[in-house]
């Protein structure tokens, strides 16, 4: 399988944990890019760090690498390959997927290390 092209998004992200019954702040819903996941136990929101969210816990200083898509559902191993490259370089990740593509969040302090490892493995980075 050929290597995908990755694009580093400009903004910094924060991962928030909220109570499962909390409402999603309107500022999040009005933002250009955000991710929401809800279970019986929690509500998780990933959004630009400049958006104020009153959360139970938050982890800031994440950057996002977008796998340039759209990716077909028949493709296999994309995230396994990328996460394997980053794991070998001791880069911790947080992954997200949409209908069209995948996102790999990496701490700001490790983004250059991550990008170098991916380039060395044959990925094109924009």
From TrEMBL:
A Pfam family of this chain: A9CJY8-like_N
Domain A9CJY8-like N-terminal residues, every copy: 12-50
Membrane-spanning parts: none
Domain named CASTOR ACT: residues: 58-119
Protein name: Aspartate kinase
Organism: Pseudoalteromonas piscicida
Phylogenetic lineage: Bacteria, Pseudomonadati, Pseudomonadota, Gammaproteobacteria, Alteromonadales
């Amino acid at each position: 399988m050929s290597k995908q092209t990755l694009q580093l998004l400009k903004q910094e992200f924060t991962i928030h944990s909220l109570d499962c019954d909390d409402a999603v702040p309107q500022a999040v819903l009005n933002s250009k890019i955000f991710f929401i996941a809800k279970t019986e136990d929690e509500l998780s929101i990933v959004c630009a760090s400049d958006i104020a969210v009153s959360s139970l816990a938050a982890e800031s200083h994440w950057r996002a690498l977008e796998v340039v898509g759209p990716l077909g559902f028949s493709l296999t191993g994309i995230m396994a390959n990328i996460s394997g490259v980053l794991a070998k370089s001791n880069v911790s990740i947080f992954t997200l997927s949409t209908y069209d593509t995948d996102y790999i969040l990496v701490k700001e302090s490790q983004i250059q290390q991550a990008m170098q490892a991916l380039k060395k493995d044959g990925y094109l980075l924009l």
